[in-house]
């Protein structure tokens, strides 16, 4: 595991092309998510089963390719300078995403998203570039299997949720926990280690980008981290002003309130149907009393708090009539 030990390997442009396809899919998903959030399209991209499956498929591809890339870059010996340079870039990008979403979506900011997970799992996966193949496969299976076989409310809390195992995830626009996604990275490591030195590697090396579309995809794959960092600010720079001009901002604000309220209400043990009634009542009260600013800023005066408390009692009585008599 040193900077000096290297072996000449054939370049695999097909991996860059695969990354390019994955980043295009992610940009498309985020575009649709933004359009849904600002109510330009009538579908909840964050919760619709089809869209959720699409998002998980993209994430699987990204995390799998992280493992593949680690083997391609460091499978014959870790090039520490190159590794840490790229790792610091990823960490810096993750920090920017956290800071940016903190200001844009304070109630659901990203504290452990894709880049956070890539940074951590890249370090965790390094030893498995050199362990016996059976051990890499065993750990990958265990990490993924534990995700499906164990859950505990303790991990619902933000401070532990990045590990995984939560019953109900905390509110955040992106959460990529170590379990199971570290297992997916290890699957990429295992697959690429099996491919290296085989006829499959020679076949992959023979796949060359011979037309414009393939070259563009390859270029995007090589710059996928940069594209990931800049695409969302660029999308929001266009979509947010349009939402104000076209009047969809108010609908977006309503939906954000309802989603946050619904999640908090269900975490208390109330059924989804009753929570929907309660939250709709709460939304009407906030609009009636013009409480948007204190609700979203957290700066609540005594007068505002009195109105919120009265509204809470009124809405609670709708779902628990026995409270009305008290």
UniProtKB/TrEMBL annotation:
Arranged from A to Z, the UniProt key words for this protein are:
Membrane, Transmembrane, Transmembrane helix
Q: Does the keyword Cytoplasm feature in the UniProt annotation?
A: no
Pfam families linked:
HGSNAT_cat
Q: Specify whether DNA repair is a keyword of the entry.
A: no
Q: Which InterPro entries match?
A: HGSNAT_cat
List, for all copies, the residue spans of the domain called Heparan-alpha-glucosaminide N-acetyltransferase catalytic.
Answer: 11-233
Where do the TM regions start and end? 21-41, 53-75, 87-105, 111-130, 137-155, 175-195, 225-246
Q: What is this protein called?
A: DUF1624 domain-containing protein
Please tell me the species this chain comes from: Devosia marina
């Amino acid at each position: 595991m040193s900077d000096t030990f290297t072996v000449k390997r054939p370049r695999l442009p097909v991996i860059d092309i695969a990354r390019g396809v994955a980043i295009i899919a992610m940009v498309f998903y985020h575009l649709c998510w933004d359009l849904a959030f600002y109510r330009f399209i009538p579908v909840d991209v964050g919760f619709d089963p089809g869209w959720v499956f699409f998002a998980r498929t993209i994430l699987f591809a990204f995390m799998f390719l992280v493992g593949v890339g680690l083997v391609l870059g460091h499978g014959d010996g870790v090039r520490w300078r190159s590794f840490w340079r790229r790792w610091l870039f990823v960490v810096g990008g993750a920090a920017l995403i956290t800071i940016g979403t903190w200001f844009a979506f304070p109630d659901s900011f990203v504290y452990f998203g894709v880049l956070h997970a890539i940074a951590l799992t890249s370090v965790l996966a390094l030893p498995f570039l050199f362990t016996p193949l059976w051990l890499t496969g065993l750990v990958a299976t265990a990490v993924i299997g534990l995700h499906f076989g164990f859950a505990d409310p303790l991990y619902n809390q933000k401070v532990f949720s990045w590990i995984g195992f939560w019953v109900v995830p905390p509110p955040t626009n992106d959460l990529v926990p170590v379990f199971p996604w570290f297992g997916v990275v290890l699957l990429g490591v295992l697959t690429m280690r099996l491919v290296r030195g085989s006829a499959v590697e020679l076949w992959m090396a023979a796949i060359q980008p011979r037309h414009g579309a393939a070259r563009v995809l390859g270029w995007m794959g090589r710059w996928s981290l940069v594209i990931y960092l800049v695409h969302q600010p660029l999308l929001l720079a266009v979509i947010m002003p349009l939402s104000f001009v076209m009047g969809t901002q108010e609908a977006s604000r309503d939906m954000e309130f309802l989603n946050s309220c619904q999640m908090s209400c269900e975490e208390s043990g109330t059924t989804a149907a009753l929570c929907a009634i309660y939250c709709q009542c709460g939304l009407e009260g906030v609009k009636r009393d013009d409480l948007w600013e204190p609700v979203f800023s957290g700066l609540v005066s005594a007068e505002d708090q009195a109105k919120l408390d009265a509204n809470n009692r009124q809405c609670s009585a709708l779902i628990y009539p026995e409270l009305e008599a008290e």
